[in-house]
Design a protein that fits this description.
321 residues, alpha/beta, 6-stranded mixed β-sheet, 5-stranded parallel β-sheet, 12 helices, 11 strands
Length: 321
């Protein structure tokens, strides 16, 4: 007798929208496609090299959510909303010509979480109502749709506290363990799970301290913020802190580092939207990165931190000009 359908789900790791996307996909697939499916999760991090190897696609069904496209013939589901969804023009062409599988792309969406919910509802009859809170916060957090910088930095809601743990918990990522919980529990229950509680208070204290670190390190000129925290364990910092400290600025460029990568983050002030004229994803793509028009990033190998700093300063000069 055949066993349960094995579903491998790849998702953007250390990202609330990535984990929420995987959760919505899980619930949709279980309810509308295969009730007894077995799910296996792999968190993906943007790095300097091509992210997927063919051997990774080991499921009966293989899905990528909130992450770059793969032309693998074993990929059966794909959802993404990033401008920089395709590593090469050939990948984009492959996506356009692949009509056999379930692949959906719409960069107009604020979050991949809502994209999956909408597609699953309209095309497959899925009822997303039980996950309405998760979908709402996926849009708020990934789309930077907070009312004020103070709200964005306060980390006072269950969703923002879960996001903090997903993005910044030390050691191995908790995302793969949290995805099935997000798929089946309300956020008020997830935030009380031991694996979340264990990390939350230390991370909140680290978050409070990081505000002072940024206050000391930020350099401001011509409406552009620059900072380098690559010598500190702060890759998962709150990206709205710079705008809380300098609400008059339009752009920010920061350098951070972890064991996995050196990273240049390029952002724009959500509360200065009418002044944001540069396509930040297009800027990042010139250096092998990508993202959204208003927020993007570039990943380098950890040993290439000096190059990351050079690129960051080049981008700062461009934005200040």
């Amino acid at each position: 007798m055949a066993g349960p359908v094995k579903v491998r789900v790849f998702f953007h790791d250390r990202c609330f929208d990535g984990a929420a996307s995987a959760a919505v996909f899980t619930r949709f697939f279980r309810e509308r496609m295969s009730p007894g499916a077995e799910f296996l999760y792999t968190g993906m991090t943007h790095q300097a090299r091509r992210p997927f190897d063919e051997s990774m696609f080991d499921g009966n069904e293989n899905a990528i959510v909130d992450f770059k496209y793969s032309p693998s013939p074993r990929l059966t589901w794909w959802f993404d909303h990033h401008q920089s969804a395709f590593l090469t023009p050939a990948d984009a062409t492959h996506f356009k010509n692949d009509h056999k599988n379930h692949k959906f792309y719409d960069p107009s969406y604020k979050s991949c979480t809502r994209l999956i919910a909408d597609v699953a509802q309209s095309k497959f009859g899925f009822d997303p109502a039980p996950l309405a809170d998760l979908i709402y916060w996926g849009d708020i957090i990934d789309g930077a749709q907070y009312a004020t910088p103070e709200e964005a930095v306060s980390v006072s809601k269950p969703a923002t506290q879960i996001a903090l743990v997903i993005e910044a918990a030390p050691g191995e990522s908790l995302s793969t363990a949290l995805v099935p919980e997000l798929a089946s529990r309300p956020l008020e229950e997830v935030v009380r799970l031991p694996m979340v509680v264990e990390h939350l208070e230390p991370l909140l204290e680290r978050h409070r301290r990081s505000i002072e670190v940024f206050r000391e390190r930020i350099q401001v000129s011509n409406g552009v913020i620059y900072f380098d925290v690559s010598d500190l364990d702060l890759e998962g910092y709150n990206k709205f802190i710079p705008y809380l400290l300098h609400p008059e600025c339009v752009y920010s460029v920061g350098v951070s580092a972890s064991k996995m990568r050196a990273k240049v983050s390029i952002g724009s002030n959500p509360w200065k939207g009418d002044q944001v004229k540069k396509n930040l994803a297009a800027i990042a793509e010139r250096f092998g990165g990508g993202g959204h028009p208003k927020v993007s990033a570039i990943s380098f190998d950890p040993a290439d931190l000096p190059r990351a700093r050079e690129v960051a300063k080049e981008i700062v000069a461009e934005l200040r000009a």
